[in-house]
Amino acid sequence: QQQVKQSPQSLIVQKGGISIINCAYENTAFDYFPWYQQFPGKGPALLIAIRPDVSEKKEGRFTISFNKSAKQFSLHIMDSQPGDSATYFCAAKAPGGYQKVTFGTGTKLQVIP
Amino acid sequence: DTEVTQTPKHLVMGMTNKKSLKCEQHMGHRAMYWYKQKAKKPPELMFVYSYEKLSINESVPSRFSPECPNSSLLNLHLHALQPEDSALYLCASSQELTLGNTIYFGEGSWLTVV
Predict the structure, then answer these.
(1) B73-108 pLDDT, tens per residue?
(2) How far apart are CA A47 and CA B62, in angstroms?
(3) d(CA B54, CA A27)
(4) Interface test with chain B among A103, A105, A107, A108, by most B beta carbons within 10 Å
(5) Are the C-beta atoms of B49 and B34 separated by less than 8 Å?
(6) Phi/psi of residue B70, each to 5°?
(7) How far A102 CA lies from chain B's nearest CA (Å)?
(8) What average pLDDT does the segment A12-32 reach?
(9) d(Cα B92, Cα B46) in Å, to the nearest integer?
(10) pLDDT tens digits along A64-106
């Protein structure tokens, strides 16, 4: 019930292409869905986040698409660049009291020139 | 740049050593966290402090001992660790335990137990 399933495990994209990472969840109580970007040797950094009352959120080249009925959300990276090469974690959190952040398993993205 | 600062960045310790990891944040956050991250895995929650009091201990072995001296500082004291404890230890903070969803991570301390 608390799991967040993330796919693919790894992804290779050509420079300029679109990177797409998908996540699915079961717990309908989740109401906050952040994406974290982690470069090798660094801690995760918040990239973008969405709440389920909107279907899409865009920040620069990064877009979250959210499908509440399907309980799925995805990260799209447009015009992918080699500097985007990192591991991406989706996550989810429920409201009320203390609710632990549930992380997906991570996607290692490599953008090749 | 992260506003959660961790020291040291790298630590190598023997199984009989006692060492400490330190974390500092100046965002006025009242919730602070320790996470452990193994290679190619997501962060795993270890401890949560809220208003300088330990709120959550995720069944972490007693060889890990957290301490929150004040609202800006968080320590993790290490004693008699095992090689399998080698990992990236991440400190994080958020506005409050029950308010504000965004967790801000530090860059982590790489721990190697030999």
Answers:
(1) 999 999 999 999 999 999 999 988 776 678 899 999
(2) 34
(3) 27
(4) A103
(5) no
(6) -160, 180
(7) 9
(8) 95
(9) 11
(10) 999 999 999 999 999 999 999 999 999 998 877 677 889 999 9
Contact A106 B108 (CB under 8 A): no
Cis check for the bond before A40: say yes or no (omega within 30 of 0): no
Q: Which residues of A touch B50 (CB under 8 A)?
A: 98
Is the CB of A104 inside 8 Å of chain B's CB atoms?
yes
Q: How many residues does chain B have?
A: 114
Give the CA dihedral A14, A20, A21, A22, nearest 10 degrees.
-150
CA distance B107 to chain A (A): 4
Closest CA to A77 of A1, A8, A21: A21
